[in-house]
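Quiz preparation item.
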């Protein structure tokens, strides 16, 4: 099952696992094309695996209505196809060479293939969502607009009158929070859970999605490679702003001059990268970043009081805990 781990309720875990497996099967079918190159390239990231957090959340949130409703699995696939499509496009924009431990599509083929395969997956998602009704189409379109808006604002960077930290947080909400929010909303919507539950899960999804993304920012600095499975300092090498680095810049302390200078762009020298990692791990900005993530997860958890008590609500509460447990 996905990275959120096991649930305390065995029956719930079995149902959600079965639903996620149905999603996986439909993903494979949906990504197929009679054109050999498209079929190979579109299944490239699919076969590389992934957390499948978004479809899992859709299936789990459907527990607040009728979890056997036929539109739940297609809706979950719509969300995951959209997510996969954005990864193809992101890798082109970031000039990435690796994705999920394998060569990225743009590195294995070229940028044009990667872009067109991303477009193909968006098209497949659109085809599926068309069968889910006009409201689902509208939600998908609005989510897609937020994804594009977030990517564009990230690419352009903050304007002269923008606060860099607020700009970054809004980008995270658009690029990550919006699709996870839709995943949760679709689960409630397709299961007939009711408008109040749908609205609560929509907000929950956005908040917990932002919390997980910001936790990744901290893990990139605080965790050893053996613990996280990733090389620490990846964002530092690429000059990508993150929550801890922006907090350093927004509230400098005495002696920060060299640190702030190095954080102003990509860090090419590996000795400098390691020095910055050590400096950040001891910097008060890290505790401030952890506190921000915990507050976001707590805000998500507080929303759960509006939902019916039971194993599904407990599982969502556990997701909040796991978001903050990763902080160390």
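Solution:
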């Amino acid at each position: 099952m996905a990275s959120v781990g096991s649930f305390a309720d065995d029956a719930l875990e079995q149902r959600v696992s079965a639903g996620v497996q149905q999603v996986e099967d439909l993903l494979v079918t949906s990504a197929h094309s009679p054109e050999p190159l498209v079929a190979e390239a579109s299944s490239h990231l699919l076969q590389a695996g992934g957390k499948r957090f978004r479809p899992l959340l859709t299936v789990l949130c459907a527990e607040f209505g009728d979890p056997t409703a036929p539109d739940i699995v297609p809706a979950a696939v719509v969300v995951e196809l959209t997510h996969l499509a954005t990864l193809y496009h992101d890798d082109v924009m970031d000039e990435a060479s690796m994705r999920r431990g394998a060569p990225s599509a743009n590195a294995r083929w070229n940028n044009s293939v990667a872009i067109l395969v991303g477009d193909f997956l968006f098209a497949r998602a659109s085809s599926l969502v068309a069968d889910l009704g006009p409201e689902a189409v509208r939600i998908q379109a609005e989510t897609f607009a937020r994804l594009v808006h977030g990517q564009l604002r990230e690419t352009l960077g903050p304007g002269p009158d923008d606060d860099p930290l607020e700009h970054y947080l809004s980008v995270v909400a658009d690029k990550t929070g919006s699709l996870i929010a839709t995943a949760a909303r679709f689960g409630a919507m397709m299961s007939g859970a009711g408008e109040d539950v749908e609205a609560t899960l929509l907000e929950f999804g956005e908040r917990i999605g932002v919390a997980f993304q910001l936790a990744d920012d901290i893990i990139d600095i605080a965790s050893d490679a053996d613990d996280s499975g990733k090389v620490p300092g990846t964002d530092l090498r690429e000059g990508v702003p993150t929550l801890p680095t922006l907090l350093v810049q927004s509230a400098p302390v005495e002696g920060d001059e060299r640190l702030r200078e190095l954080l102003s762009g990509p860090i090419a020298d590996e000795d400098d990268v390691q020095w910055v990692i050590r400096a950040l791990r001891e910097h008060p900005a890290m505790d401030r970043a952890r506190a921000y993530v915990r507050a976001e997860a707590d805000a998500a958890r507080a929303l759960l009081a509006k939902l019916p008590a039971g194993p599904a609500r407990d599982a969502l509460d556990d997701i909040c805990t796991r978001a903050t447990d990763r902080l160390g």
